[in-house]
Design a protein that fits this description.
The protein is mainly beta. Helix content is 5%, strand content 41%. It has two helices and 13 strands. The strands form three sheets. It has a six-stranded antiparallel β-sheet, with no helix packed on it. The chain has a five-stranded antiparallel β-sheet with strand order 9-8-11-6-13, with no helix packed on it. A hairpin with a 2-residue loop joins strand 3 and strand 4.
Length: 203
Amino acid sequence: MACTFTQCKKNGVVFEGLYEIQPRVFGDDRGYFFEAYSKKDFADAGLTMEFVQDNQSLSSRGVLRGLHFQTRHPQGKLVRVVSGKVYDVAVDLRNGSPSFGMYYGVVLSGEKQNQFYIPEGFAHGFYVLSDTAVFTYKCTDFYDPQGEGGLPWNDPVIGVDWQAAAADCGSITPLLSPKDGTHPAFRPDAAYFDRNGRWIGRA
């Protein structure tokens, strides 16, 4: 395999379908080369999703995007940072999942070239830790503007510790879009997605 797949676990709880992926990077004084995605490697690891859309964004230090999800067309996402560094977070919203309501975070960087696969049924967001960050992701379904959903970045029940990830970058002072300042709070008793990542809540 050209990549190492590590299933994410936190406090003894496995996040089903959530993986950190480390490609094998070949580098010398001329630069580097690596396979950013291999369908065969993913299939050998038991991941047989099909990607239909690639997205890329540029963000400056302090920008926080999230926490987002899609209702009518849930998306699995393979995310990575081409240049710069971000703290990337996934929140399990699959009702009945052992990790329901829990989050997992990982620092993604252009230096390390690590990746994060987030299956359908998760909310996703990231905070930029470098001067700028080029962020790219492959999606298993097309973006649907009518199916946008989200959680507050600082939801007290979810309790993402953004500050710990940004300890070497100063205090958290997030730059948010107007929309990301208005998401409804997480409700542990609400219906979101089923165990397979299909939306079962109220759109």
